[in-house]
Design brief:
The complex is a heterotrimer. Chain B is mainly α. Chain B contains eight helices and no strands. In chain B, helix 2 packs antiparallel against helix 7, helix 5 packs across helix 8 and helix 7 packs antiparallel against helix 8. Chain B is elongated and about 70 Å long. Chain B starts with a helix and ends in a 17-residue tail after the last helix. Chain C starts with 6 loop residues before the first helix and ends in a 27-residue tail after the last helix. Classes of the chains: A mainly alpha, B mainly alpha, C mainly alpha. At the A-B interface, strand 1 and helix 8 of A face helix 3 of B.
Chain lengths: 333, 179, 540
């Protein structure tokens, strides 16, 4: 047992119970969990996110330090690896795109095995696969939820829903993304719990967001497929939130919804203070977002300052006689 | 002899147990890495140990152990352990482990004729391996110290020669280079 | 026959199980042989760096830290966060996914969990959270924060000097987090307290004053190169007279001084001399800028700049057109990623053009410094070299991609192209152990000191293991490289793990293959060994 994940799990359960209890108490508490906290969370998120990115941007990039993962640009008869070792802005854009959209570096994990006399290579794809599954499911879920915040619903949302519901099973139709989000988060969690190496490096701050997201996915799935909450009322409420005319709709919405909303609020507010900022940070990583052209184009360091050096004159003063004796040219005879 | 046959048949499983004995000397977090990663280039430690134990097992259960083969099989694993562990006891304790593993197998063969002789042969093999391992370990440590000394010497040798501080003996009977 | 002793008794007599504790609670092993010797105070003083309160040893309890050490570290940390976006971003965005964990050669060789790059960074990150983040201040250990104590400083010293800044982990990190960057910052903070190692600071101090790591004086430097020329005359029959500190030469040649005083680097130096003679290059060597290497890189960015400044200063004084750089690893990290930014613009130099082939080195247009492997590859491509690769026939060669030219430059094809033209037997090591995924020699970033030989041999095991594979499979007996630290560190590594394999610089093989004008028939290679194994026995 590990205090890191137990405490995270406990925290998420307690948060869930608080929201549930609040929703059951009605009145003021519904306003608190349904209006006040979501607004506060979004505010914290926006200000926190901007603040964090501004804070990063405030620190300069004094040196051009890309990790070069392929052949450099050199003579024209040597084929350059234009994406893994970009020397142009376009190359960098493609490298970043592949990094952000396909998690290219994670994909680099390979393993060798010797079979008889031959070497065989295989991809170690589990981490990559779980990560892709998790992030893309999350994205799909977020986009689907825009339905609750737009009127009329923009064209791409039904489109995504159609793709997501391609299995055409169940009523309401199962969305794959909900399930894969839950599965992805669970697998990433299991990885942390079960692999000793990963377990050793994991902190409460690694478990907490996973439990929180599992909680969000779980409550979401429960509402959609099992307890069947009143979607019309929820939309009335969420539209009220976005149009800045918040209100709690008449009639019951269900405690689960408040738990769901509270979890989301916590997650959103938590992002700027946590490792979840990697979503913004990946764009600013100097080993990835710079071209490897520092010998061709001078990179400027804004805080470059003069330093004490040992000049040639000082050097010659030290050794002049010996230099003359050895027949080495000197400045001052 | 049935017991020897039994050991041969169960080699894979027994070597695996022996491997675990070695691996347990590492921190839990790394043990799994050494154990599970079968990539010989990404995990040279685990794979070297595996290969060595596999060959050693054949020797330890062989009443006519070939000391040459055993020594050859011991070298890679001891070589790794010699740079990882500072005391020979820690580095080489794994060899005794095989006695325990084999002893656990013996119960249903207690009645077999000559079992005691075979059992003591195995023990003697393991003991001899341990002694050989000490030799290898010491040689490795000796080699490391030599490397350290040579490195220190090598760094300034050319300089000393050139500064006429030392002379190099010539290849043949000619005059000294630095004179 | 007596029965076996009870196996369990035998077994339990040795307690080798390592207690499973949280990493924060495991103190670093600072027994003798596990740490690099600390620097002598005089080196610090000479370089005007802060000092401890007296000479100290990592094995002792009291490290004689300055009284206000906490303030120094905190302010130093803050300053660096404000100066380096890399540090700030890398402190914040790690998700501890573990992709880097088993990529470090020290982890692979030692199994010490704190050698996982992610934990090495956590050593710094935990303090960052405690001192500089809201979450860390409020939630403390739950948010992964911990207080700065003297034990933390000791842990830093232990583990930031068990990282060779090779950047292999940064290749696999989904956010490009570069542990080299973390280690450099960690070492800078330690240096603020006067904690540094002798193997780094003594060469740095020597280099500052005398122009090179060993402190070779100008006349001795000339003597030693002249000595190579004597040997070359004996081997080839051709007399070479290089010039020193000569004004008006077209090109200034700078290479690590290790190639001047330590085998097998010396043979590489002889290879350079033959090459330049062969093509009639108008070049000069400098005794003032007689060091390509830069141990400042392993100390602080300021020290790196102070040492590096000599290259441009000397090029300017001598009025050369551009600079040619020899085979070295970290020297090329400095030139590729730092030099122009720190000490440029080099507007007194011309954009480099090969005087032999007319090739413009566009990729070096601003820094005005060309790598010798690029230069030679271009010569061969244009048919300017007369080569007899069969003179290297007794060598079955593989190539070690040095970390810095690989992951901070991307120079993979040039040296291979040269190798394939100067020798007939070349085999690459397996994928995953070469090019951008190359394994470090285990001794980079100032760790090639003899007192930690065990550690170096452990850290170099993944590299040696891949060499052993090609040795077993193809009979490889020579490991070529383009790095002076490699030439110093790989021979003991090979000696221990694959004793049948020797180590050579790229240009030693070039020198062997070069057919010089007016040369006598070659019977020896640059090491003055017979060209083929057979000649040992046969009478001529």
């Amino acid at each position: 047992m590990n205090v890191n994940y137990l405490s995270s799990l406990a925290a998420v359960i307690i948060l869930g119970l608080i929201a549930y209890a609040g929703a059951q108490s009605g009145g003021f508490y519904q306003v608190l969990f349904g209006i006040f906290i979501p607004y506060l969370a979004v505010l914290v998120f926006i200000l926190g996110f901007i603040n964090r990115v501004m804070d990063w941007a405030k620190s300069p990039v004094p040196f051009r330090i890309p990790s070069t993962c392929g052949q450099q640009q050199s003579m024209e008869w040597i084929k350059q690896s234009k994406i893994d070792n970009p020397s142009t802005f376009i190359g960098v854009v493609i490298r970043m795109f592949l990094e952000i959209v396909l998690f290219r570096s994670l994909f680099r994990n390979s393993r060798v095995e010797i079979r008889g006399d031959r070497l065989s290579y295989k991809w170690v794809i589990w981490l990559w696969l779980f990560a892709i599954m998790f992030h893309y499911s999350f994205l799909a879920v977020v986009i689907r939820h825009l339905r609750f915040f737009t009127e009329p619903v923009p064209f791409f949302i039904p489109l995504i829903e159609k793709v997501d519901g391609i299995l055409q099973v169940g009523l309401p139709i199962y969305y794959i993304s909900g399930l894969t989000l839950l599965a992805g988060a669970t697998l990433l969690l299991l990885r942390r719990v079960l692999i000793p190496k990963i377990n050793y490096i994991s902190q409460a701050a690694d478990y907490f967001p996973l439990f929180l997201i599992i909680g969000i996915a779980f409550t979401g799935i429960m509402m959609r497929y099992f307890t069947k909450v009143d979607v019309v009322r929820i939309k009335e409420m969420t539209m009220g939130l976005v149009t800045l005319h918040p209100g709690i709709p008449e009639g019951p919405i269900g405690g689960l919804f408040y738990v769901h909303l509270f979890f989301v609020s916590i997650l959103v507010a938590y992002i700027p203070f946590s490792k979840l900022m990697h979503m913004g940070g990946v764009f600013l990583s100097p080993t990835r977002n710079l071209a490897n052209n520092s010998r061709a184009k001078r990179h400027i360091n804004p805080w470059n300052y003069p330093v004490k050096v040992h000049t040639y004159e000082e050097y010659e003063d030290d050794f002049r006689e010996k230099m003359i004796e050895a027949g080495l040219p000197v400045e001052k005879e | 002899m049935d017991f020897e046959k039994h050991l041969k048949e169960n080699k894979q499983n027994l070597v695996k147990q022996w491997f675990s004995v070695v691996i347990e000397t590492y921190p839990r977090e790394s043990a799994k890495f050494f154990k599970d990663n079968s990539d010989p280039f990404a995990n040279p430690v685990g794979n070297t140990i595996k290969r060595s134990l596999d060959r050693l097992f054949d020797q330890v259960i062989n009443p006519q152990m070939d000391p040459g083969v055993a020594k050859e099989a011991l070298d890679p694993i001891v070589r790794v352990r010699a740079v990882q562990e500072l005391t020979p006891a820690r580095a080489l304790s794994f060899i005794s482990g095989i006695k325990q593993i084999i002893a656990k197998q013996i119960s249903s063969f207690q009645k077999e004729k000559g079992i005691e002789i075979y059992q003591s042969a195995i023990a003697a093999n393991a003991d001899e391996m341990l002694l050989m391992a000490f030799d290898i370990y010491t040689a490795c440590k000796h080699q490391i110290y030599t490397l350290r000394i040579n490195e220190a010497k090598q760094r300034v040798r050319q300089l000393l020669i050139k500064k006429d501080l030392i002379c190099e003996l010539p290849d043949s009977d000619t005059e000294l280079k630095c004179l | 026959m007596a029965k076996l002793p009870k196996p369990d008794d035998l077994f339990n007599s040795i307690d080798y199980k390592i207690p499973s504790k949280k990493w924060e609670d495991v103190p670093p092993d600072l027994s003798d042989g596990k740490f690099c010797y600390p620097t002598k105070i005089k080196n610090l003083e000479y370089l005007s760096l802060p000092t401890t309160k007296g000479e100290w040893s990592p094995a002792e309890d009291d490290w004689k830290l300055p009284d206000n050490w906490e303030t120094i570290v905190r302010e130093g940390f803050k300053e660096r966060l404000d100066k380096y976006r890399s540090l700030k971003v890398f402190m914040d965005i790690c998700v501890r996914c573990g992709a880097c964990a088993d990529k470090c050669h020290f982890f692979i060789g030692t199994g010490d969990p704190k050698n996982m790059p992610v934990l090495r960074a956590e050593l710094l990150r935990s303090i960052y959270r405690n001192d500089f983040t809201t979450a860390g201040r409020i939630l403390g250990t739950i948010a992964g924060a911990r207080k700065l104590t003297k034990d933390v400083i000791k842990e830093w010293f232990s583990y930031f000097y068990q990282c060779t800044e090779c950047r292999r982990c940064s290749v696999y990190c989904p956010y490009g987090i570069d542990t080299a960057e973390i280690t450099m910052m960690g070492r800078e903070l330690l240096t603020l307290l006067g904690l540094n190692i002798n193997w780094i600071l003594e060469p740095a101090a020597n280099c500052f004053r005398m122009g090179n790591h060993l402190g070779i004086q100008p006349h001795a430097f000339k003597d030693m190169v002249d000595f190579f020329c004597d040997d070359l005359e004996e081997i080839t029959g051709v007399r070479i007279n290089p010039s020193y500190n000569r004004k008006g030469a077209e090109i200034l040649f700078i290479t690590p001084s290790g190639d001047v005083f330590a085998d097998p680097g010396t043979y590489t130096f002889m290879g350079y001399l033959l090459l330049f003679e062969h093509i009639g290059l108008d070049y000069t060597l400098s005794t003032y800028a007689s060091e390509g290497g830069n141990f400042g890189l392993f100390t602080s960015s300021e020290m790196m700049k102070r040492l590096n400044a000599k290259m441009y200063a000397e090029a300017k004084r001598l009025g050369v057109k551009w600079i040619l750089g020899g085979e070295c690893g970290h020297m090329w990290r400095v030139i590729q990623q730092y030099m122009d930014t720190m000490n440029g613009p080099a507007d007194f130099l011309e954009s480099p053009v090969s005087p032999i082939t007319g090739t413009k080195f566009e990729n070096a247009a601003s820094t005005k410094m060309v790598h010798i492997a690029e230069f030679t590859a271009d010569l061969i491509r244009n048919g300017k070299l007369k080569l007899d690769p069969s003179r290297n026939d007794k060598h079955i060669v593989t190539f070690h991609d040095s970390c810095n030219p690989s992951r901070a430059m991307g120079m993979f094809e040039e040296p291979r192209y040269v190798l394939k033209n100067v020798c007939n037997h070349f085999y690459d090591m397996p994928e995953g152990t070469i090019r951008e995924q190359t394994f470090c020699c285990g001794s980079g970033s100032g760790l090639n000191t003899e007192e930690i030989m065990d550690l170096r041999l452990r850290g170099g095991l993944p590299r040696a293991n891949a060499v052993k594979h090609v040795h077993d499979k193809y009979g490889v007996n020579m490991l070529a490289c383009v790095c002076a630290i490699d030439r110093a560190a790989l021979p003991p590594l090979m000696n221990y793990w694959v004793p049948e394999v020797g180590v050579t610089g790229l240009h030693e093989l070039v020198g062997n293959a070069l057919v010089m004008e007016g040369e006598t028939e070659r019977t020896m290679n640059l090491r003055q060994e017979p060209l083929t194994e057979e000649e040992d026995e046969t009478d001529e």
